[in-house]
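Q: I have two molecules that I believe assemble together. Could you output structure tokens for the complex as a whole instead of separate predictions?
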Amino acid sequence: AQTVTQSQPEMSVQEAETVTLSCTYDTSESNYYLFWYKQPPSRQMILVIRQEAYKQQNATENRFSVNFQKAAKSFSLKISDSQLGDTAMYFCAFGDSGAGSYQLTFGKGTKLSVIP
Amino acid sequence: GAVVSQHPSWVICKSGTSVKIECRSLDFQATTMFWYRQFPKQSLMLMATSNEGSKATYEQGVEKDKFLINHASLTLSTLTVTSAHPEDSSFYICSASRPVGGPLEQYFGPGTRLTVT
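A: Yes, here they are, computed for all two components at once.
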């Protein structure tokens, strides 16, 4: 079974600064996907960014980028120019495309607070 | 695109009664839908996976007879909490994934807060 570990329960960052959220995972699969989801106070889960394991290039989406280290099984999220609206819970998730069911395994989350 | 709705967003019911939560994919056909439960300040816990036209697959420890899941069409899945008790109070979230060959990510509904009194 896959496991996802987020070692930072809470983090804070000053507005306009950069912050990195950590995520490690454990799997024996070679073909998989990794995701970062954001859950703001509204509790709506929002996809932030996605990375396919077979792609060496790190995914980027505007102010959000990842550092994907496949050998180290590490998948960190960098948020640049932090904004107040980035305040949320962030969940790292692992998706095993080979399983056929497309289930996601979530980490316990990191609560990010952006301070004005 | 890829919008998922849930209804109701908030429900209060009395102990011993049943409550149904609907999950709809509004602009795509979802071959697979997932139901999660989330306790305060915790992560999402997968309860079951449902595929259109077949029985749901429940995670270990989830009571099948208590949490009835029906995936009647490619756009609708329902979760019925039967004989609800206060310990069933929680935040329930559904998600849907596109057909095989599309992106793997799940699209989430806004969640339903269930309070059992």
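A: One point stands out. Chain A has one domain: 3-115.
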